[in-house]
Amino acid sequence: MKLTIDPKLLADTVAWAARALPTRPPIPVLAGLMLAAHDDQLDVSAFDYDMSMRATIPADVAEPGLIVLPGRVLTEIAKALPTTSYVEITADNREAGIRCGRSDYTLPTLPADDYPTLPEPPDPVGSINADQLAAAVAQVAAAAGKDDTLPMLTGVRIDADGGQLTLAATDRYRIAVRDLTWAPNGAPFGHLIPARHLHDITKGLGHGDVQIGVGDGLAAFTTGSRHTTVRLLDDQFIDYRKRISYEPAITATVDAATLAAAIKRVGLVADRTTAIRLAFDREQVLVRAGGADIGRGSETVECALTGDPIEIAFQSQYLLDALGAIDGTAHIGMDGARKPALFRSGDDSYRCLVMSLRVS
After folding, report:
1. Are 180 and 165 in contact (CB under 8 A)?
2. Phi and psi torsions of 179, nearest 5°
3. Which contacts qualify for 222-227: CB closer than 8 Å, 24 or more apart?
4. In terms of domains, do 67 and 147 share one?
5. Is residue 164 part of a domain?
6. Fewer C-beta neighbours within 10 Å, C or N terminus of the chain?
7. Smallest Cα–Cα separation from 247: which of 326, 334, 305, 313?
8. What total number of domains does the chain contain?
9. pTM confidence score
């Protein structure tokens, strides 16, 4: 292999593909990035059996070839290369040379024959703005569980029905749901994608539209010349629509950012698992936390209440995640101090059902 390439383009592409490098590779070669040079372009790929990433970028290819280089080392080298001159990469079966300006590196190659075949992305079934998708995933992924022994709880459910795309996640203590509009070109579907992978994928989509494909146990996300696939989880999931579709007896309307800031300040006298108490009356909510042994904090925030005054308590991080996903006005629906509360955005596109805490 022999080629020259723009250093910034190489660094950006390698850093993007490195998102798929496994922390503990099941086989040594998967710690590498695969580089395939052909037809005046370079393909950069990474794979960990659950997720694959492949990008194609222009290059001046003098000798085509395929090599696998240590991924994390290559990423650091590419990031550090000067941008004043082009990068020259030459390689044989044993090692690769990377030269840019006065910088010169030699890396051992990994056995390319041992690298597994990357899955082919399924055909697109619709498209959506990448920024909107990334924001929606961030809103719901916080509610996904972390316990891998319960795979259903570690995923984000994506349901497509006509022009509406719905994302949902739950860890049993809360359910977060976000509705989006998109442009479908396939049949309705519902699939469960690992939340951690989906969050990583959508953070690196960039701007513009992303094509989404599903099929053969995979979901695919394509933007320009970058393709990502991720293996789907079992489709079993809770009936989240029924649980968030009701009208509570009590509704508090409050600025989400103002209430979140008050919770953070009051929470300085408590740890992440300590209950935050919210006492709602007609014109304000009293935020309280702490106790005699650790100190106490309180603050009032303006709000409007429909229904009877109520005092209810929540785990602080669950409160902050729900309020942090809402821009502007938040509507908090409650049916009692020991029942879940429904947090809704002003346009009702985001809903999060949060379990309350029983406190004395």
Report:
1. yes
2. -100, 140
3. 222/121, 222/124, 223/130, 225/55, 225/56, 225/57, 226/16, 226/53, 226/54, 226/55, 227/52, 227/53, 227/54, 227/55, 227/121
4. no
5. yes
6. C
7. 334
8. 3
9. 0.90
Q: State whether 17 and 54 are in the same domain.
A: yes
Residue 252 lies in a domain: yes
CA dist., res. 151 & res. 217, Å (int): 15
Give the torsion through C-alpha atoms of 133, 18, 119, 171, to 10 deg.
-50
Tens of each residue's pLDDT in the chain, 360 residues: 999 999 999 999 999 999 999 989 999 999 999 999 999 999 999 999 999 999 999 999 999 999 999 999 999 999 999 998 999 999 998 999 999 999 999 999 999 999 999 999 999 999 999 999 999 999 999 999 988 888 889 999 999 999 999 999 999 999 999 999 999 998 899 999 999 999 999 988 888 999 999 999 999 999 989 999 999 998 889 999 999 999 999 999 999 999 999 999 998 887 766 799 999 998 999 999 987 677 889 999 999 999 999 999 999 999 999 999 999 999 999 999 999 999 999 999 999 999 999 876
The pLDDT of residue 223 is 93
Q: Say whether both 18 and 68 belong to one domain.
A: yes
> Are 255 and 230 contained in the same domain?
no
**CATH, residue 188:** 3.10.150.10
Domain ends where: 222, 242, 262? 242
Yes or no: say if 158 and 166 are a contact pair by the CB < 8 Å rule: yes
What distance in Å separates the CA atoms of residue 2 and residue 288, rounded to the nearest whole number? Answer: 65
Is 119 domain-assigned? no
Same domain, 169 and 224: yes
Q: Which residue, 224, 242, 260, sits at the end of a domain?
A: 242
Q: Are residues 228 and 258 in the same domain?
A: no
The answer to whether residue 157 sits within a structural domain is yes
Domain residues for the domain of 213 are 124-242
